[in-house]
Write a structure and sequence with these properties.
3 domains, DNA Polymerase III, Chain A, domain 2, about 45% strand, 8-stranded antiparallel sheet, about 375 residues, 10-stranded antiparallel sheet, about 15% helix
Length: about 375
C-alpha cells in the first residue's frame, strides 16, 4: 500500500481514532488502527472492542492495500512533522512515513487479517434528535455516570424509550439526573450507552443540525459526515430509577446559582479531603453553608443572601464535590431546591423548554 495525503488530514482523523486506544488490553490489536486504500478511497478504523470509530481521509492512492498502524506512535509522528504532504507506505511488516521535507520514519507493524471488523448496522431502530439538544443532554448526564467497574449497569447513560416519553438517565447511587422528553417515534426499549461513547460523540457531532442514533442488535451507531461512531450497548438491566425519586418534597429553597456555587467553593476550602463534607443550614431568614475541619482547626461560614425559605429549621450534609457539580450543571440562574428532611433525597428542579429535568442528590451524615 502506498498513499499520499497531508498532515492536516491525518491530524483530523487521528484526533478521533485515538479516542478508542487502550494502553492496557488483553488484545494488542486494539492499540492499532486499520487502514484500507482502494479506488473507493482511504478509510481508517480504530476500536477497543467496545467503542469504535471509522473515518476517511482525502489521499492519492498510488498502490492499493491494507495494513495496521500503531495508533499512539503514528499520532506522535503526525504531531512533530511539518505541515504539508505526507507519503505513507506499508510493505509487509514495515511502515514508512515520509514528510514533504524528507523527514522519514520507519517502524514495524503486525498482520491485519485478525483485526476486528466493524459490526453490522441493520438500521433497525432509528432515533433522530437535534444535535444541540443531544449534546446538552449528554453534558447534563456525564458527571452522574458511575465510574466503578463493580456496577456495570450504571457505567453509561440509560436511554429509556417508552410509549409516550423518553427518559435519559444517569446515576452512580449518590446522585441521579433524569431528563424526560416526548417520544415522537415508534421506538421503545431501554438502552444503556457507555460513558466513553457519549463522551466521543459529544466532542465530534458539531457541524450538523440533527443526529441519528441507530440501535441495531447489541450496538448503537451514529454518523457525522465522513465519520461513523459505534459502541456496544451495555448488556445489563438498569435499576428502577423512579423508585428513588421522592414523589413529594414539601420544603423548598430558592437561591441564586452564582452565589450558591461561590459559597460551595468557599465552604470547600475547609473540608476534610477524605469526606468532602459541607452542611447547608436552613431556617426562616437565615441560610448558610458551613464546613468544619477539626484536625486542622478550620471553619468556613458562607451565608446565602439571595436565599428564600419558609419552613422549619434544618441542616443537610452534602459531599461538596457532588453538590458543586449539580449546581454547576443547573441550567437556570435561579435554583429551586426541594427536600423533606436531613436524611432523605433532595431534588433540584430546573425549568427547561420541552423537557422535565430532575437532579437528585443524596445527603450525607454531618460529622462536626
Amino acid at each position: 500500500m502506498n498513499i499520499s495525503t497531508t498532515k492536516k488530514e491525518l491530524q483530523e482523523a487521528f484526533s478521533k481514532l485515538s479516542k478508542t486506544t487502550q494502553i492496557k488490553s488483553q488484545n494488542p490489536l486494539v492499540n492499532y488502527t486499520y487502514i484500507s486504500a482502494s479506488a473507493a478511497g482511504v478509510s481508517l478504523h480504530s476500536t477497543d472492542l467496545e467503542v469504535g470509530v471509522k473515518t476517511s481521509i482525502t489521499a492519492s492512492v498510488n498502490r492499493e492495500g491494507e495494513g495496521l498502524f500503531p495508533t499512539s506512535e503514528i499520532n506522535d509522528i503526525i504531531n512533530v512533522i511539518e505541515e504539508g504532504r505526507v507519503d505513507i507506505e506499508v510493505s509487509g511488516p514495515h511502515i514508512n512515513i515520509k514528510s514533504e521535507k524528507g523527514v522519514s520514519f520507519d517502524m514495524s507493524t503486525v498482520p491485519f487479517q485478525d483485526y476486528p471488523e466493524v459490526p453490522e448496522n441493520k438500521h433497525e431502530n432509528l432515533y433522530c434528535i437535534d444535535t444541540k439538544v443531544l449534546k446538552d443532554i449528554i453534558d447534563s448526564l456525564m458527571y452522574a455516570v458511575n465510574n466503578e467497574p463493580t456496577k456495570p449497569a450504571l457505567n453509561g447513560g440509560c436511554f429509556n424509550f417508552k410509549e409516550d416519553s423518553i427518559d435519559f438517565v444517569a446515576t452512580d447511587g449518590h446522585r441521579l439526573v433524569k431528563i424526560s422528553k416526548q417520544n415522537t417515534t415508534s421506538l421503545t426499549g431501554s438502552f444503556i450507552i457507555p460513558k466513553k461513547f457519549l463522551s466521543i460523540i459529544h466532542s465530534f457531532l458539531d457541524g450538523q443540525s440533527e443526529t441519528n442514533l441507530v440501535f441495531s442488535g447489541d450496538h448503537v451507531f451514529t454518523n457525522n459526515n465522513k465519520d461513523m461512531f459505534y459502541s456496544k450497548i451495555i448488556d445489563e438491566k438498569y435499576p428502577n430509577y423512579n423508585a428513588v425519586i421522592p414523589e413529594e418534597n414539601p420544603l423548598r429553597l430558592t437561591a441564586n446559582k452564582t452565589e450558591m456555587l461561590n459559597n460551595i467553593k468557599a465552604a470547600s476550602l475547609a473540608t476534610n479531603k477524605n469526606t468532602n463534607q459541607i452542611s447547608l443550614n436552613i431556617s426562616e431568614g437565615k441560610v448558610f453553608f458551613k464546613s468544619v475541619n477539626q484536625p486542622e482547626s478550620k471553619t468556613v461560614f458562607a451565608p446565602l443572601k439571595s436565599a428564600e425559605y419558609s419552613g422549619e429549621e434544618i441542616s443537610i450534609g452534602f459531599n461538596a464535590i457532588y453538590l458543586k457539580e449539580a449546581v454547576s450543571k443547573y441550567p437556570n440562574e435561579e435554583i429551586n431546591f426541594t427536600f423533606k428532611d436531613s436524611s432523605s433525597a433532595t431534588l433540584f428542579l430546573p425549568s427547561v423548554k420541552d423537557q422535565n429535568t430532575t437532579i437528585l442528590l443524596m445527603p450525607v451524615r454531618i460529622n462536626e
